[in-house]
Amino acid sequence: MHSNRCRPIQLKTEVKSSCPTEIGAEVEEEPPSPQACSPVALQTPAETPIKVKSPRKLIIQSLPLETPTPRRRFKQFYYPEITDRQWNDWRWQIANRVRSLEQLERFIHLTPQERMAAECLQGKLPLAITPYYLSLLVGHGADYALRRTVVPLIDEFMKMPGEADDPLGEEDQSPVPGLVHRYPDRVLFLTLDFCSTYCRYCTRSRVVGHGRLFFNRRRLENALEYIRRTPTIRDVLLSGGDPLTLGDARLDWLLTRLRQIKHVEIVRIGTKIPAVLPQRITPQLVRMLRRHHPLWMSLHFTHPDECTPEAYRACQRLADAGIPLGSQTVLLKSINDSVPVMKDLVHHLLQMRVRPYYLYQCDPISGSAHFRTSVEKGLEIIRGLRGHTTGYAVPTYVIDAPGGGGKIPLMPDYCQGHCGENLVLKNYEDKLYQYPDIM
Ligand code: SF4
Question: How many angstroms separate the CA atoms of 202 and 153, rounded?
Answer without folding.
Answer: 14
